[in-house]
Every structure is written in structure tokens, then in C-alpha cells.
User: Which sequence fits this backbone?
């Protein structure tokens, strides 16, 4: 039991250590530092704002905050999936010659991406407070919504990185596939417009429910749509299970195949 | 040595690699070549091997180039999985050392020491304690916060050797680690073998240096064309090795 505890403590320390180092590598290396974490969603914000508000005259109220809140969740999904596609290759030094299990390596990277989301979330809070929208008690549901997007992204990352072992061009294919996912998500559109023109989309694209529930609890201070949250949870668990299965099947031979 | 505690045990371990006539690395390749037959060649790098290594032993691994030495150590360390039916049992933490692998070149020496130490099962607090010794032994005082991609191969090797010494892994696989580094460091590294840091730890030394193996290893594995030709007394192993054509 005691050795078990020591092992677990060591493992947790290690995951946190790796997450911190990765976060630092991602943002602190450049001169602009942590600002980079902000520049990406802000740049996208400006681009999409021009396109959808100024040119297309979107009638969504507080469109800039609507957009920003969607962008930071979308960025989390992209950073964790695209960012982890090559993980078994780039983090090879961690598992090849030691006793560290691969799932810990994934977890560390997922935490590191989550730290980025946390930082962006603070910016969103500032927007909300200064934009006179405020924040309500329903934000307490946020951990639930976050858990779903975390598990879902984790699962997709597992699947992609293990396919990468067998087919390197998944690295080129995924950005295209995810791009399609973005355009059928409520990132720029009203959820009702989207379901009106693409019936059933809320059941197909998990990011649909995740994004709209994220806005429900932060922007609109209403309860999440529990029906969609339930469906997304099931989707997340299925995707994660497939990813975990692939890691056990293909990933265990990663050090020979890569 | 009565009461021998097993450190590593291999049962019926083989390791084969599949090589394909053409390698399809992408989805496009796979789709375009669905109808074509791809010749598969099986290369058996290590053939059905059984052995037991006891705690505290220093084992040499010798053999010609391509005899399966490195594959064997990689299978023993867990980097490679043995083929179906084979079993590798290890007792304790292990560290495979060969020329700076296990490091990320994007990280600094400091970060690498912490990451490496932590993967070996040390607590952060324990790493804090050995940190200065590791740096001092590796002679890298001025380069603590330098990314190791700017290091020379000798510096990287010194660092990983130094971590291995202080990190106290139960089993050490030393794959040709005495081959590089300048003369001064080589001397220092071999001296380490004489000091008592190896006590109660198991070391597996892969080396072409007959001198080193003869001096420090009590038992030696002789590999030849993937087969374990001999495992036992170092002197006899060396004789057989020299007799190989």
C-alpha cells in the first residue's frame, strides 16, 4: 500500500511536471510569451468578426463575445487533437527507455492544453464582466461541460496519434476533416439556424452540443441542455474507448514502428 | 551467491522484425496499392532465448555487429515487446542508456534531469537533492539552463551517464556507453564501475571493449546471429567469441 502511494504520488508529480514544461515550451519561449496564447483566438476573432458581423451582418447579439467563447473551446479541441497527433513520435524519448506508460504522456499534454484554455477563459471572464453581461450561477455547470470536451478531445487525440503510426498523412487529412467539423458547428452560426438547415446535426457533430452548452453556462447563464450533454457524454466515452483500444493494439508497438 | 533474487528473467523470448518489400506509410499509398501484393520478409533478430539474471550481477553482452546484442537489450529493457509466447520479467525500475536517448533535445539540462529522474521513479524532492551532484559529475556547471540540442554528443552522454548513476535505477542497461566521451570522462565512468554504486544493482553492459567486459563482468552473454551461443563465465565467453570466424 505504501509503495503504491509513493508510486501514485510520483506519477502525479511527473504528469504535472511534464504538463508545466510543455506549457512553458509552448508559450514562454517566444518573446511575446503568454500573449501568444491570446493572439491566436483574438486574430481569429477579428477575422471572423469582419466576415460575419460587418460583411454578412449576423444578427446574433453580442456577436464578438459569442464568437470568442466559441473560439476558445474550438481552439482547445484543435490544439489537443492536431497538437497530439504526433505525440508518439515527439515524446518517444519518454516511453521508449523507461517505465512510463503512454497514457500518462497523453494526459500531461492534455493538461498542458487545458492550461491554455484556462488562460483564455480568464480573458473571456474579463470580456463578460466589462461587456455588462456578467456571469451567473450556472457557470457552476462548467466543469461538467469541460469534462465532456476533455474526454472527447482526448479520445480523438488517441485515435489520430495511433493512426499516425500506420498512416503518416493523417497529419494532413485531419486539418481538413476538422475544418468541416468547424463549419457545421455553431462557432459562427446560431444553433437554431444550423439545426434548421441541417436537421440532426446536433447528434452528428459532438462539438455542436459542447459549444452551445459552453455558451449556455457562461454567456447566457442558463442550464446546459442536458439531453445534448448526455449524448455528448456517450459520444465522448465511445471515442475515448476506441482511442484507448487503439493505443493498446497499435500504440504498444510504437517504438518499433515509428 | 546463494539466495539469489531474480532481477531479469527471459522465457522463450524471440524478436522478429517484419520488413516489407515496399513500405506504405500513408493512406494514399495504401489505397493505391491495395491490389498489389507486398512481400513480407521476417527477420529473426533474437531466437528463442531463455535466461535468468540475478540481482547485483554485472553481465556483459558481446557479439559481432548485427548479432542481436542491441535488440536483446531493448527487449530486456522493455523498449521492444517480445514475439508471441515470449515473456520478459523484470524486478524493479530500469534505465537503458545509449548515447543520450531518453532526452528531449528541446529541453534544457535541468528539465531533462527532472523529467528523466521522474520517469525513473524519483520524487521531485529527491531530484532536488541529487541535482547538483548530477551536474557536477557530468561537468556541465555552465550549461544547466541550455537546451541540450546545443550540446555536443559527449556532453549529452555525460549527462545521461551521470543521471543513471545518481538516479539509482535497479537495473542498468549500458549499451556502448563507454565508447565515446573524452579519455578523461571515460576513465571517470569506468571508475564508477569500481565504486560501490553498483552494489545491489544489476548492470548489463553491451560493449566491444574486451578489456571492460573481462574486468567487470562476472558472467557474459555471447550472441551470434541472433542465437545465444553461450551464457556464463566471462573468460570462456571471450574465448568462444575470439574463436568465431
Assistant:
Amino acid at each position: 500500500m505504501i509503495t503504491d502511494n509513493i508510486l501514485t504520488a510520483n506519477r502525479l508529480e511527473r504528469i504535472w511536471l511534464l504538463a508545466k514544461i510543455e506549457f512553458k515550451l509552448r508559450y514562454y519561449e517566444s518573446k511575446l510569451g503568454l500573449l501568444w496564447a491570446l493572439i491566436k483566438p483574438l486574430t481569429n476573432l477579428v477575422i471572423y468578426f469582419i466576415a460575419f458581423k460587418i460583411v454578412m451582418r449576423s444578427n446574433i447579439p453580442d456577436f464578438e463575445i459569442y464568437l470568442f467563447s466559441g473560439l476558445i473551446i474550438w481552439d482547445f479541441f484543435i490544439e489537443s487533437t492536431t497538437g497530439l497527433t504526433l505525440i508518439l513520435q515527439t515524446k518517444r524519448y519518454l516511453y521508449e527507455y523507461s517505465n512510463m506508460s503512454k497514457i500518462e504522456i497523453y494526459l500531461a499534454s492534455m493538461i498542458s492544453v487545458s492550461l491554455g484554455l484556462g488562460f483564455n477563459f480568464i480573458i473571456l471572464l474579463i470580456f463578460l464582466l466589462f461587456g455588462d453581461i456578467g456571469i451567473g450561477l450556472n457557470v457552476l455547470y462548467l466543469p461538467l461541460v469541460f469534462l465532456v470536451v476533455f474526454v472527447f478531445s482526448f479520445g480523438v487525440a488517441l485515435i489520430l496519434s495511433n493512426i499516425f503510426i500506420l498512416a503518416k498523412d493523417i497529419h494532413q487529412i485531419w486539418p481538413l476533416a476538422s475544418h468541416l467539423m468547424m463549419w457545421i458547428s455553431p462557432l459562427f452560426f446560431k444553433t437554431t439556424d444550423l439545426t434548421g438547415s441541417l436537421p440532426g446535426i446536433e447528434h452528428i457533430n459532438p462539438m455542436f452540443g459542447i459549444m452551445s452548452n459552453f455558451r449556455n453556462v457562461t454567456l447566457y447563464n442558463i442550464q446546459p441542455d442536458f439531453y445534448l450533454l448526455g449524448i455528448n457524454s456517450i459520444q465522448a466515452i465511445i471515442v475515448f474507448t476506441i482511442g484507448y483500444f487503439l493505443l493498446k493494439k497499435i500504440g504498444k508497438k510504437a517504438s518499433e514502428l515509428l | 551467491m546463494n539466495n539469489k533474487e531474480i532481477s531479469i528473467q527471459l522465457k522463450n523470448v524471440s524478436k522478429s522484425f517484419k520488413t516489407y518489400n515496399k513500405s506504405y506509410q500513408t493512406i494514399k499509398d495504401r489505397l493505391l496499392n491495395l491490389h498489389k501484393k507486398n512481400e513480407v520478409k521476417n527477420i529473426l533478430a533474437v531466437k528463442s532465448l531463455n535466461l535468468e539474471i540475478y540481482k547485483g550481477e554485472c553481465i556483459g553482452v558481446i557479439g559481432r555487429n548485427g548479432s542481436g546484442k542491441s535488440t536483446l537489450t531493448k527487449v530486456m529493457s522493455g523498449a521492444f515487446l517480445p514475439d508471441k509466447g515470449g515473456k520478459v520479467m523484470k524486478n524493479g525500475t530500469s534505465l537503458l542508456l545509449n548515447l543520450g536517448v531518453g532526452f528531449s533535445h528541446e529541453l534544457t539540462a535541468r528539465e531533462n534531469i527532472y523529467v528523466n529522474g521522474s520517469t525513473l521513479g524519483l520524487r521531485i524532492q529527491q531530484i532536488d537533492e541529487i541535482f547538483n551532484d548530477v551536474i557536477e559529475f557530468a561537468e556541465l556547471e555552465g550549461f544547466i539552463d541550455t537546451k541540450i540540442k546545443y550540446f555536443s554528443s559527449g556532453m549529452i552522454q555525460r549527462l545521461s551517464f551521470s543521471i543513471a548513476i545518481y538516479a539509482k535505477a535497479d537495473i542498468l542497461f549500458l549499451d556502448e556507453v563507454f565508447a565515446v566521451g573524452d579519455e578523461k570522462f571515460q576513465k571517470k565512468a569506468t571508475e564508477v564501475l569500481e565504486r560501490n554504486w553498483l552494489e545491489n544493482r544489476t548492470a548489463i553492459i553491451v560493449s566491444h571493449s574486451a578489456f571492460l567486459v573481462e574486468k567487470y563482468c562476472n558472467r557474459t552473454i555471447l550472441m551470434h546471429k541472433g542465437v545465444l551461443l553461450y551464457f556464463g563465465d566471462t573468460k570462456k565467453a571471450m574465448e568462444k567469441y575470439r574463436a568465431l570466424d
Observations:
- Strands of chain B lie at 6-20, 40-54, 58-63, 87-90, 94-97, 171-175, 202-206, 219-224, 227-233.
